[in-house]
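A reminder from the course coordinator: this example appears on the midterm review sheet, so study it carefully.

Given structure:
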């Protein structure tokens, strides 16, 4: 699998103020159809596709429509769409073990709504490159997750790394030709001397979280891992952490975000790099405003 071909998507005063600021930022967007925003977003800088994992907006935004507004406010043309806005838009209730057994009619309705969601985002200039809806346990539920990816226009699905689950899902990924991007935390990061996991299928890949890698290895650069596995990477997660596992505003931690982005630019790697906001949102600010700062950080790093 070539990465170039793969992508050639209890209210406190503080939380009240943050929510109000979010609402104000979203309301500032002209009241036009999503197909014709005043300014189409473009977050491809120096050939590098910068997106966001919508987990970054947690606690502030839940609907697909408000998520799209936030993306446009933040100038983002790429997104990893998590389950909350997808569920809200399609009416799909319950994920993972609670996934309902769908009738053919229900399945068709959900997939049609996913296609409409894709069109709404695409018309506004936003590409859904991957989604992250937890997998169910039945073959029917697993197939449905892949069908949702196709309807959204996504090339992959991200999920937490688990070798047993990877083994189970690999045949489904082969059948649907949709990539699986397994996400690492601090304790299960990809290792240079162990890539047997990737031998399960050409559609089994990595969602490399460079902040978790840096923290989990107590300060090692993720660049050697990216250089070795670049053709098996579905997407990156970007965050700034320290070797002792603190999450900090970008530029205050030690994770080599700039060096990683510059390497992507130099090598012309086309998998997306998604912002994942995990540091504490400052008082009076919002997740939308903080994501915008991260976007600007990436833009400057790639200038």
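Designed residues:
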């Amino acid at each position: 699998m070539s990465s170039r071909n793969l992508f050639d998507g209890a209210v406190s005063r503080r939380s009240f103020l943050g929510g109000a600021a979010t609402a104000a930022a979203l309301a500032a967007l002209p009241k036009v159809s999503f197909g014709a925003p005043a300014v189409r977003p473009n977050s491809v800088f120096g050939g590098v596709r910068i997106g966001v994992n919508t987990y970054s907006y947690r606690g502030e935004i839940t609907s697909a429509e408000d998520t799209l507004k936030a993306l446009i406010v933040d100038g983002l043309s790429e997104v990893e769409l998590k389950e909350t806005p997808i569920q809200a838009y399609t009416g799909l209730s319950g994920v993972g073990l609670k996934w309902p057994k769908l009738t053919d009619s229900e399945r068709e309705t959900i997939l049609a709504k996913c296609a409409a969601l894709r069109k709404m985002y695409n018309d506004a200039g936003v590409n859904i490159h991957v989604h992250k809806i937890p997998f169910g346990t039945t073959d029917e539920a697993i197939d449905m997750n892949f069908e949702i990816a196709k309807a959204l226009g996504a090339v992959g699905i991200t999920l937490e790394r688990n070798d047993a689950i990877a083994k189970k899902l690999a045949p489904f990924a082969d059948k649907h030709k949709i990539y699986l991007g397994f996400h690492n935390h601090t304790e299960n990061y990809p290792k240079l001397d162990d890539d047997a996991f990737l031998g399960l299928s050409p559609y089994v890949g990595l969602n490399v979280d460079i902040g978790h890698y840096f923290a989990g290895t107590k300060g090692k650069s993720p660049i050697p891992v990216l250089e070795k596995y670049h053709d098996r990477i579905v997407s990156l997660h970007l965050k700034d952490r320290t070797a002792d596992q603190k999450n900090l505003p970008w530029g205050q931690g030690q994770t080599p975000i700039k060096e990683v982005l510059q390497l992507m630019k130099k090598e012309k790697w086309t998998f997306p790099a998604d912002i994942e906001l995990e540091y504490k949102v400052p008082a009076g600010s919002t997740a939308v405003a903080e994501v915008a700062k991260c976007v600007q950080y990436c833009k400057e790093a790639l200038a």
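Residues 186 and 216 are 4 Å apart (CA to CA). The beta strands are 44-45, 48-53, 78-82, 127-132, 156-160, 179-183, 204-209, 233-238, 273-275.
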